[in-house]
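Schema walkthrough. Field components (list of strings):
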Amino acid sequence: MQGLMQHGALTVDKIIDHAALWHGGREVVTRSVEGPIVRTTYGAIHERAKRVSNALLALGVKPGDRVATLAWNTARHMEAWYGIMGIGAICHTLNPRLFPEQIAWIADHAGDRVIFTDLTFLPIVAAILPRVPSLEHVVVFTDRDHMPVDFKPAGEAPNYKGVLCFEDLVAEHPADCAWGGFDEGTAAGLCYTSGTTGDPKGVLYSHRSNFLHTLITLQPDVMGLSQKDVILPVVPMFHANAWGVAFSAPGTGAKMVMPGAKMDGASIYELLDSEGVTFSAAVPTVWQMLLQHLRENDLKLPVLNKVVIGGAACPEHIIRAFQEDYDVEVVHAWGMTETSPVGTLSVMTDELAKLPYDQQMPYRLKQGRPPLGVELKLTDDAGNRLPHDGKSFGNLKIKGPIIAAEYFRGAGGKILDAEGFFDTGDVATIDDHGFMQITDRAKDVVKSGGEWISTIDIENIALGHPKAAMTAVIGVAHPKWDERPILLVKLKEGETATKEEFLAFLEGKIAKWWTPDDVVFVDDIPLGATGKIDKKLIRQRMADYVLPSLAAAAVVAEAAPEPEPEPPAATLAAADGAQAARIYAPEPEEPLSEPPPLLEPQVVEALAEAPSQPVAEPEPEVVPVAAAPEAEPAFEARGESEHFPLGPLTATAAAALAPVPEEAFHAKPVFVAEEPPLAMPVIPSKGGKKARKADAKGKSSGAAGVLVDVAVLVALAPALLVAAGAVGVKLGLFGQPVGYDLLTLDWAPKVATLGVATGVLALIVALFGGFSKLWKKALLALAITIATLGVMVAANAVGGRAPPIHDVSTDWKTPLMLSDAGLAARGGEAQTVEPDPSLPVGSADFAGRRVADVNAETCPAARPLVLARSPADAYESAKAAVQAAGLTLVTDDPIDGRLEATGQSFWYGLKDDLVVRVRPDAAGARVDMRSVGRAPGADMGRNCRRVGGLLAVVKG
Ligand code: AMP
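Field assembly_structure (string):
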């Protein structure tokens, strides 16, 4: 029996329809290829995409026709994207990072009829046109002012009808095109795999697979996007639909920020910062550059919330930097062009999230678990399923409605096994938590003595060496073990290192038999078109390489017919040296072989001579060419001829990929939102990140977060109270009774005791409540409280040892008493000044004792000063010392040899009264002093210090 629900075709035009209708005013911001930042909205994109559809229909494009794009991530690319798919044509995203001959091969194989391209890529389009007879129209993503005047194919292109301006097409065609109306299984997009094995193969996405992929990516444990997000897809639309973001962002109504041609650290940071980006996705290389930029310029990421890192294994230092230094959640993901591309994501399960962060790290480094809609299995070569024990290596296979069933035009034949699973070509393990870990590409794994060695594992560990900039491991032939691993290292600039250093670094971190047989230092580790290490090219380059041990053995065998069991060290060293000289000899500049180049010689020359910095002022009518964008991986000039019917190209393709320099264009925006935004774009405030994080973690996490924040505040409160008390009295905001007695002596210790309770509670919540990110904060709260209590206990101990006096005098036999004026200044509230005071009961060790005796025991300074000077002279010295110490004179009687003054402590303004008396003595003059605090209790030695200090000055 069939269900009785509606059956709406899952076609992607509905995604942009939804975005326009419900989030029409949400912004899409682009760093345009022409230079300026331009802004549009989903509403405007929708309308302009309809115009693109009409333009395509007018050019004769029919459902099922392939329409190519060779373009950066921009709003215009989105308009073409939805305009093509909406009428049932197929959007074929071409990867400009491939060599032009590969692009030509792919476009020809796809039978592309129209190509939309950026100004940047016109030299490539001109070069491939003669090789792609199906191509009829070139549409340039620009306006009339920036159209090239001299664009022409680099040779005869029989069906080529001309070059068109995108903005003209949009302006000339109406916006009333009907979209959809076809089956959801209709092809929507075409993307060729990077071709690391054999010729590139086309993955033909359907509307349904894209729609379902969008729903899958929106799951909270996948990308978890929301309309509140601001999304920067650095991953290009030509790399598996920008990992689906070109659908999921409009699907949720999130603001989009498109990086255009600039993906270097500074440019990406600028957009993250200025547009308030909360979510981004890119390969590790891009993040590496961003992190370097952040460190070098001491920048922060206050708004960015989450990054998805995939396409290649994500190194630990990147995960740690994001999480620990910038508080950005990292989702390490795995996928393929064939899987739409999301396959697995390393999102902590509830159980793992309860572990301390360091114990989560091994799982974060894995590629993770599949979301709903994706099935995985691990098999041996015979197709038998392998256990999920985290140890068994096997072939990773995948199944689901977002996974390719076959390649375009049947390339590669049958690609599913009997159970309908697609063999990913990756070798992996799956552990008992369900976390999959890629250990290698099947063709890269090193097979040593019948066992497999993961090259990725060794590379990642070696990359942790502080001198390593890049690492790669490949297997090389070995007569006994079949293959042995060798490690290639590109050192950071200015570094030198030895093989032994790297081998020692690996020791203990990998199984002994995994230890590479050699470490080769190279200037460059080549990357392929999607930013992954090109091991095929490395293997080609290392074709003549022989392991040092084998080379040494050969040398020894030649020298002496009987082989030595251990070759002498000197021979080994010599063999090593010879080897090092041979490996990585510079590549020849010239092409490896004919046939003729795709670019005309003058274009080749122009590209080859392109300066490394943007051209300052190019001729307006010429399409300017600058260096390859900083963010792009180094491009290899050598073709992979055995897989391509076309020969390699002479020119460096990198130059052809150069972005147009910003200065070359006027600063006016090329296009703007055609309608005023329906709603103001929401740019998150700096404080928004925490709120969003609390949102994402749910209510309970929010409550825990609040508790931990309160614990930190309580921990800091005693110090704040003491500081507030001191500053308040100092500024005269309140008196000593509030600042000192209440805030400092009463409240601060009580709050510190409370801090112990809240700190412990916060730690318990953080450790056992599953809020792994909070435990550090909770520990911090407890640590601050303990430190505060420590300070208080220490102060008490010192105070306990110090006598509880506030009265110090050098003469108790003839007591120094305050005059009426001094008493008046002291005030009625102050402690009484007695001629011979005793300490009260409750004064611990000193209870009931005479202050005179306690002074004699505890204050060595409490001794009269006898000077061989006249009393008048001694008096003047004493008066000068009192004034220099900042005390205020109350009485001054040189005749009587007596003065009184008032002193005040710096912060709390605690007041003491001083009496100085100078009398004639047999030796000359005798100086006595008494300093007596107005507040009761211990003065912590303040009056003793004052008397001692003043007498020392008088003595000179
Ligand atoms: P592509 O189709 O060009 O996106 O390449 C897909 C391949 O990239 C996969 O089969 C993996 O070998 C590799 N890959 C993608 N993501 C990861 C990852 N997170 N870790 C390791 N390898 C990855």
